[in-house]
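# nightly structure sweep
# worker-07 picked up a monomer target from the shared queue
# config: single-sequence mode, recycle default, output format = structure tokens
# input follows
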Amino acid sequence: MTVSGGELLARALKAADVKVVFALHGGHLDPFLLACQEIGIKLIDGRHEGAVGHAAEGYAKASGTLGVAAVTAGAGFANGVASLVSAHTDRTPMLMITSSPPLAEAELNELQGGIDQVAVARPVTRWAQRVTATRRIPDLTALAVRKALGVPPGPVLLEVPVDLMFAEVDETRIVPSGHAIVAPLPGPAEEAVEAAGSILRSARRPVIVAGNGLRYARAEPALRAFADRSGIPVFSQMGTSWLPNEHPLKAFGAWYLAALGQQDATRPDAVLLAGARMGRYLGGRTGSIIPHSARIVQIDIDASEIGRLRPVDQPVVADAAQALRSLAADPRAWPDWSGWAAAATGAHRARSQFADEPHYLSGRMHPYHAVRTALEQIPHGSTIVVDGGEAAGWVWESLARSRHRDVIGFGGYTGILGASTGMAIGAQVARPGTQVVLFCGDGAAGFHIQEFDTMVRHSLPIVVVVVNNALWGQSVRGQEKRYGKRGVVISRLDDTGYELVARGFGARGERVAKLEDVPGAMNRSFAEGRPACVNLSVAYGPEPRTAAGMSRRPASGEISLPYYETTATAPGHG
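# output follows
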């Protein structure tokens, strides 16, 4: 009995417990797509390969497991590369499947050929490989899954040339492959757990910062158990949510650490980084979020990540879930930090510096008030997906006002705008029956607005909130700071009716220009249970604190760069 390469590929994914593949059609993929349909792998087809790849990312983040995307050769692969870059910097386990012209037609100026796709992908993947024999498809697919879910997790690429995809091979010639599912990851050394516990117990103001590394370790129960046992407040990196909103130790985003006071006496003196990487989203090297004086315990499955930005007092190289369970199992008593915990978890309730600003600026809604009001309407247990840019800054300002279950996005470490549209699709597929809400700026909305069609065709009731100030907000702000009004170049947009575009694809659409109308528009969108766009007409007003960057005031001979540290005028100096 013979079987096609495409069927072998689909079977291998099924054996790896893959339930969904995000795809965009291409003739190279036909045997694979047909086989997926026949063996029960759900296909979610999008309108652009970039969005398809980001949907696989979003699915991985929301499900805590592998996301799979399938795109055709050449242009399809090229469109999808951005999602590989995003998954690589955010350590998201993702498998991208693509094809290529027949092996025998290499260097013949063939259709959808002429580039080495594997070579292009290697710098931005954990592993990239071309299949050169149809019978190798099962074992190389299993290897790809293990690589994606390995240490640390990340994206991989598997290229199956079209002739191998269509080829029929004798099943009896196929050697059984290794299991695709990764075995339990390593636990921590006993002495590391003991030392970490001692550092935390000796602290007067310890905090936990929980990061995205906990997603794929399935570490949420372990984190909650350790927090309950120790009484240490839990902050989250990039808005991710690991404790229920009503939990007494939930302190919301790590940016609230910067609000605990300017003096070391009111800030943390010990920080447990649990699957959280130091960098842009923890204040870089400024000490604005994690004080320079604080002792650091860092749990990470990747030893090379520990100490990247500053010395770490106690490294714990291990699976985050196992490390947290070991810390919780330590029989030594924990100090009573209830007073400190109450102060730390109350930081998000501090009155915002924008609270007393007018509701309207130049005739349009103040972005702080508009976004805050929209967040307050979100149903309990929703997943919030946030794009990058200044719109994300306004979400950060008031995120604790929502009743979310989880938060995904903020542009990630790559800062990709527009990625959130696909991520929201992936998150909604991973979490059927729950509400997914996407916040993006009007600039980001334009990247993949055609995916309203995907949401409608697949009945994905995502509510997209466009924070529309008719310009690239962060870009204009940076240009004005450096060059004044003359520096504002190609940074302005038209005041587009994004809600009308959504309607054209069959979604619900509503534009809101008055603050008192925001609750009604949001709640009508949730009530209809179908894809919707709420277009908020907001002003270009003050800058949200979280969008302000990490720079200190430049000294003589230094310049302040947008988004980065202050630097010397000559590269390499300072």
